[in-house]
Amino acid sequence: MDRVIEKKKGFQLKKHYPYVAGGVLLLVLVCWVLFGNHASTLKVSADELTVSEVSRAEFKDYVRTNGQVMPIQVVQISPEEGGIVMEKVVEEGTTVRKGDVIVRLSNSNLDLQILNAEAELAEKQNLLRNTQVAMQQDRLNNQTEQAQLDMDTQRKQRTYEQNRRLYQEKLISQEDFVQSQEDYQLSAKKRSLVSKRLKQDSLYRTVQMDQMEDNLQNMRRNVVLVRQRKDKLEVRSAIDGELGLLDVELGQSVQAGQKIGQINDLSDYKVQAQIDEHYIDRVRQGLTATFQRGDKQYQLQVRKVYPEVREGKFRCDFVFRGERPEQIRSGQTYYIDLELGQPEQAVLIPRGTFFQTTGGQWIFVLDKSGTKAYRRSIRIGRQNPQYYEVLEGLEPGERVVSSGYEAFKDNEVLILK
Fold this sequence. Notes:
By secondary structure, this protein is an alpha+beta fold. 35% of the residues lie in helices and 34% in strands. The chain has four helices and 22 strands. The protein has a six-stranded mixed sheet, with no helix packed on it. A six-stranded antiparallel beta barrel has the order 4-11-14-13-12-15. A four-stranded antiparallel sheet has the order 3-16-20-19, with no helix packed on it. Strand 13 and strand 14 (313-321) form a beta hairpin. Helix 2 packs antiparallel against helix 3 (174-231). The protein is elongated. The protein starts with 12 loop residues before the first helix and ends with a strand. Residues 32-37 have low confidence and may be disordered.
């Protein structure tokens, strides 16, 4: 008879092997995800890298730039009157004094204006004289007329007084008395009216003469000014200095206000530099700077900061403090260290081309063995021509890769061979 086979209970390896293997594989995968290092790596040659050490030292806050020596002042030469160049009195490079003639011009139109102004002045003077003569004659005629009216009024007054007494004594008729009275009153009234007219005429003539005299004075001043314009055809030096440029030729037509040259004030010199716009908010008047010339160091001070930025740079003028270099000449170039602040202790790394790729936001840091370098976030503050100031992310004694990162792409770990 058949025997019933009982099913075996419990774990059977062969039957559950696939499940066990899958579980183990899943566990390994989870551990690798949680605890494994997934950073992308790149093998590089150690000989091609520049490794620098992080240090703690004094940070000198300065910027280095090159400046060009220039005269302390440059005065533009521009004629006040236009004309044709007739004579170049001095040549470029000549030392001139204030008021020396540099160029002589000719202007025929200006000569004609002077003649016209003088002729108009003479005409006005003649007109004024004729008016004065006519006014004098009118004054004499008015005085004669006034005298005749005075005499006529006196006579008629006397006749009236006599007739009044005769009429009171009944020696003349009433008609004769009234007629003499009317004649006297009419004469007195005419005298009063003529006196007022003569007074008004006198005031009008006086005002007219004053106006003509003012016009005449204005014309005299105009003639003087026109003659002075002729004097300005001689272009003169405004300061003592050296004629650095004279860009005119004989026979050339020059316009009023046109720049034809410049005079360099060599009583002193300044140094003009072009500085990166990154520092425009920190550079201000009064900052000190130094430069080396031979075995001596010279002092400069910021005199003026120009606010305009061109091609990523702005201009700055320096003046000397104390001694000047010997044989100083316009056009010489000095390499200037401009101090932006006081020296301070800080964590430093040497300048390197890595900054162009990272912008100072991260850097590769070597481990203790020196065989690997790991990417680390950092924060960089100020910088000078030699060092970067590290604000966060690095400690003194650590070593970093300071050469360029262009070939590393997005790799986070470098293996040094």
